[in-house]
Amino acid sequence: MCGDEIVTYKPREPKTKSAAQALAALQRLAARSEKSSGDAMRLMQRWGVPETERRGVLARLIKERFIDDSRYAEAYVREKSRLAGWGERKIAMQLRAKGISQEIVKQALGAIDGDSQRLRLEDKLRRKLKSIKAVNDYELRGKLLRYAISLGYDYDTSSDAVQSVIG
User: Fold this and answer.
1) DSSP 34-101
2) Which CATH number does the domain housing residue 102 bear?
3) Distance, CA of 31 to chain centre
């Protein structure tokens, strides 16, 4: 390639799918991992499936139990609370962003054990403590408190956990 050549790139055309193709693709995806109804609707929109057909495809996926928002929410809560160490607020916010109804979110969050959550938070704070640079205790407490709140824990739980970790 010479220095004076101009290369132009055409943006890739988005692939469109028919309702039948979208159904088959979503069945494959949902068989491998949990998907929410919101995930399915976003994918179908990206694939260019018409709005009226999207609803029919989603209804069929739900009827055939490929998609179940309750099951999805329970799995999401388990993963994010146990593995990622997120608090209830962050989990609820993310589920709502995925289009899960408030009742289902509330039901799924009921499975969280408060004591084990608190222990996970304290463990995460201890690990974070090693990497924080602070001039004094006040600054250290503030940084740990902000970190705990960013994980989705309420102020009281975060404050108690920080107090427990720092002493």
Assistant:
1) ---HHHHHHHHHHTT--HHHHHHHHHHHHHTTS--HHHHHHHHHHIIIIIS---HHHHHHHHHHTT--
2) 1.10.10
3) 19
The answer on 162 and 119 residing in a single domain is yes
Residue pLDDT, tens place only, 130-142: 999 999 999 999 9
How far from 4 is each of 1, 9, 10, 97, CA to CA, in Å?
8, 16, 19, 48
Q: Which domain holds residue 49?
A: 19-67
pLDDT tens readout for residues 76-105: 999 999 889 999 999 999 999 999 999 999
Task: Tell me how many domains the chain contains.
Answer: 3
The torsion angles phi and psi of 36, rounded to 5 degrees, stand at -95, 165
Locate 142 and state its tokens: 């503030």
